[in-house]
Amino acid sequence: MATGDTLLILTTLMNEPPASAGASPDTRNAHAVLDFDAAANENALFRGILPRNYGGGGITVYVHYAMSSATTGSVIWNTAFERIGDGAQDIDADGFAAAIALTHAVPATSGNVAVAALAHTNGAQIDSIVVGESFRLKVTRDAAAAGDDATGDAELTAIELKET
Amino acid sequence: MARLFDDAALDRLEADVAAVTAFGFTVSGWFNANDLGVTGTVFYLGDKDSANFHCHLKVAGAEAGDFLKASVRNTTSVDAVSSIAVTVNTLQHALCTITSTDITVYLDGGNSGTNTHALSPPTPDRTSIGRRGRSTPDSYFSGRLQEVGLWNVVLNAGEIAALSKGYSPALVRLTALKGYWPIMGQNSPEIDLSNGGVNLTVTGTAQSAHRTMYRPTSAPSLKWTTAVAAAAGGKHLTLLGVGR
What we know:
The structure holds two protein chains of two kinds. Chain A is mostly beta strands. Chain A has one domain (6-163): Jelly Rolls (Sandwich), CATH 2.60.120.260. In chain A, 0% of the residues lie in helices and 46% in strands. Chain A has strands spanning 6-11, 24-28, 31-36, 42-49, 59-67, 74-83, 100-105, 114-120, 134-141, 154-163. In chain A, the strands form two sheets. In chain A, strands 1, 2, 3, 5, 8 and 10 form a six-stranded antiparallel β-sheet that branches. In chain A, strands 4-9-6-7 form a four-stranded antiparallel β-sheet, with no helix packed on it. In chain A, strand 2 and strand 3 form a beta hairpin. By secondary structure, chain B is mainly beta. Chain B folds into two domains: 2-213, Sandwich (Jelly Rolls); 215-244, no CATH class. Helices cover 5% and strands 41% of the residues of chain B. Chain B is globular and about 55 Å long. Chains A and B meet through strand 1 and strand 2 of A and helix 1 of B.
């Protein structure tokens, strides 16, 4: 029974940046962060292996972030899984499942870290990854969407994957 | 550990190989100049058999102003000059970008200077750190050098800022990284950690303090402890192999 288990913890230094439109590495008081722009969609990519204690449930992606300056408004986070698995994905191409989106109100203090929880059900929303398979997680700030109205960068600090 | 370069002893790191061969590249490195009475080379790429035909990132201590300069030299020379002076005995970040038309230098992520040029690219066959490795080498560096990176593209503003804040070159545009010399002072030759494979022969130098960098890290392993602990009512999460 693995519901509630932390499956993986991902830090910003694990980012495998995409060839274009990548979030920018930055620091804030020596915290390593990834800056996601307010004007254009930017992405970060993380690799993992679904651990053996995974029990087959959904996976909630907790996005920990602060805003560089904004104290009002919202950001829209998208998360998407790509199963690499055992012969499931030719890594010459991307194969992400449809993203889950969440509009999240930013903290009232720009340096405070908020946690946005994006719940993926098992199956298609996690690209049908099974225990022991490798995968990638793409995190995107959907800055182009109208609902993403917070100004300035969103600073990703960490990510937790928990079995729902 | 970084390396401490003694200009009087002609200390340098060098290989008779060109880490990149065409304009459109970026050089980044950390330096601590301990003598601004001399001009010292952070990075050189050029024709070892010629006094000309090279690109050069240097602390121009012997020149008025003590600026950081990036130069392209053919039969004439064009410089880009930082807008503020280098500070003696202070660890600082140097970066330059050189295209077929522009040369820009950055000191500590900003304080930049730009110039235009129409010079033909050199045909480089030498990569040097700590001296201008031309036919009659000169401009030996006095102080510490570390974490030198070379990309065969012009990095963007965000990437330049990240490097100046202490991100390892291994975290910036890895696909274009053609030279990365951490210069830990523990290997001879100094190893190139990029896929360029240009290891640098060490002449002289001594180990010295190294700036802490943000480096790539691996995923922590999460492990539940034994059934005994679980049966006791506690779930204990153990982090294994957390690395920086």
